[in-house]
């Protein structure tokens, strides 16, 4: 029993070092993972889809898929998983980790870039390194149409107009007949340059009874 507990402590400490979470946060996140999985070693899309806090999120599908996207698991792999274990779950959750008072300027910049890459991957659904008009339109349409305030055609028109505006910003000398291939990650960084990401990108379903991890939408 003691040896097993020691191995668990070492593993949790290793994961804390890998992700930037504190040891306490890793332990609490492990408890939440066990709650979600029913004490199984892995969880599926269906289990995450049943989380009540995600039920009304207009991009719930993209959030859930992000957990099973290998690009978000810090292992330099591509493709998707059918199920994920705790380590993979934790690696994805690290993208939602807010900075602390001890976070340096360099660490904040790295954290921001990781969050932007995570968001980019959510939009770049075919993993070709660009967000195409079709991919961008799909996300915007879902965000708008599911709000109940706008129809599908209007959502499509807004998405198209927004994408063309992005194209004209990133390729200012593009001729009308030119084809815009899509937003690269570098373009994506420029588009969101003025948006404060470090504390705004949270996920809310981690009600694990800890005061050391801020989860949920920022009110600032």
UniProtKB/TrEMBL annotation:
Give the species this sequence originates from: Cyclopterus lumpus (Lumpsucker)
Kindly indicate whether the keyword Nucleus belongs to this entry. Answer: yes
Task: Supply one GO CC term from the record.
Answer: ruffle membrane
Q: Which residues form the EF-hand domain?
A: 111-146
Q: Which residues are listed as membrane-spanning?
A: none
Q: Which GO terms describe its biological process?
A: cell differentiation
Which Pfam families does the UniProt record give?
EF-hand_6
Q: Which InterPro entries match?
A: CHP3, EF-hand-dom_pair, EF_Hand_1_Ca_BS, EF_hand_dom
| The name this protein goes by in its record | Calcineurin B homologous protein 3
Primary localisation category = other
Localization, per the record, is: Cell projection, Lamellipodium; Cell projection, Ruffle membrane; Cytoplasm; Membrane
């Amino acid at each position: 029993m003691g040896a097993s507990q020691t191995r668990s402590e070492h593993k949790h400490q290793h994961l804390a070092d890998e992700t930037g979470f504190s040891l306490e946060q890793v332990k609490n996140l492990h408890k939440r993972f066990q709650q979600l999985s029913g004490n199984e070693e892995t969880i599926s899309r269906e289990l995450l889809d049943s989380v009540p806090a995600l039920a009304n999120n207009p991009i719930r599908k993209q959030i859930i898929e992000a957990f099973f996207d290998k690009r978000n698991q810090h292992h330099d792999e591509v493709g998707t998983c059918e199920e994920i274990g705790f380590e993979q779950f934790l690696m994805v959750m690290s993208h939602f980790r807010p900075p602390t008072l001890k976070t340096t300027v360099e660490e904040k910049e790295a954290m921001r870039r990781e969050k932007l890459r995570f968001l980019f991957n959510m939009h770049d659904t075919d993993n070709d390194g660009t967000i195409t008009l079709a991919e961008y339109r799909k996300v915007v349409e879902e965000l708008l149409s599911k709000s109940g305030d706008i129809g599908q055609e209007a959502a499509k028109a807004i998405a198209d107009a927004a994408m063309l505006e992005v194209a004209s910003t990133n390729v200012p000398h593009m001729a009308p007949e030119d084809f815009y291939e899509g937003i690269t990650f570098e373009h994506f960084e420029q588009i969101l340059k003025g948006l404060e990401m470090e504390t705004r990108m949270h996920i809310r379903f981690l009600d694990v009874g800890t005061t050391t991890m801020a989860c949920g939408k920022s009110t600032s």
